[in-house]
Each structure stands twice: as C-alpha cells, then as structure tokens.
C-alpha cells in the first residue's frame, strides 16, 4: 500500500510541475464525470493483505466552489495470497464532497458517505455496507479537463479494511 501512496503522490506532483494553470471551477453549478485506475487493498484481521488494480467510474455535481455530491462505481481485480483471497465484484457509494480551492486550478477535497462492497473475500465479509471517507486533490489541465488522485477508506469492519488509491481524469460539463 505504501508503494501505491508514493506512486499516486508522485504522479500528482509531476502533474503540478508539468501543466499550466487553467480555471475550471466557477461560482456556477456544474456536473462532472471521471474514470480512475483503482489500486485497492483488502486487509483482513489476522491474515496477509491482498491487493490489485480495478476501474472506478465517478459522477458528481458541484453546487458551488465548496460543496458537491459524488457517486462511485468500481469493478475488477483479484488476488490470492495463500490463505487470503480477494476478488472485487463491485463497489458502489454515495458521498458528500467538501472542497478547498487552493488556486484557480488546484482543489483539495474530502469525501464522506456510505459504500457498499461486494466480492469474494476470504477471510472476512463477502459484502459490506459501511461509512466511508477519503481525501484527494484535483488539478485543472484544460478548461474542462482535470487530473485527480485520492485515497479512500471504503470499509472498516471488525473483520477487514478495504482501502484504495485512485488516479484518473475528470471531465467537467459546462
């Protein structure tokens, strides 16, 4: 998981250095859609963690520069590490989004909501509904296009924890 955090952070930092600033948020309302690479990790209590790569689709609406709503749908990835097994069928969630605009192109954000996870995980729950949260950053690279990176804790039950780091592209409709 540490390698994934370093990878996501490095990609975001290189993006900050390599792109020029573009404004893409305004006072007006707007909708957006995104596609992300989802680097997930399933860590059961008392067994080795498993991890793999999946695809996450997101869609949301921004009410202003500070508040919005967002939905996630993720699929894919399977790993088998001895007595630990992880196979993600799907992950779905709905979240409130709070943003902190740093400048016209860089926004930090936090998400809080509910996620539903379904898959074949051993040991642990095969499906879970839990309170979820995370944080991330979005950088505008063109008037309607941005790149993003975020960390989410989707489930944290007594049996296991399901975390993910995502890196992707966001399109803002105007």
UniProtKB/TrEMBL annotation:
Keywords: Signal
Gene3D superfamilies for the chain: 2.40.160.20
Outer membrane protein beta-barrel domain boundaries: 10-173
Entry superkingdom: Bacteria
Signal peptide: 1-23
Official protein name in the record: Outer membrane protein with beta-barrel domain
